[in-house]
Amino acid sequence: MRRETPSGSAVSAESPSAATTPEWAVTALDKVDDVVAKVRSNTTDRLVRVARTVVFGILAGLMGLTALVLGVIAAVRVLDELIPGPVWGVYLPLGAIFVLVGAFLWSKKTPRPAKR
Question: How confident is the model at residue 44 (pLDDT cuts 50, 70, 90)?
Answer without folding.
Answer: confident
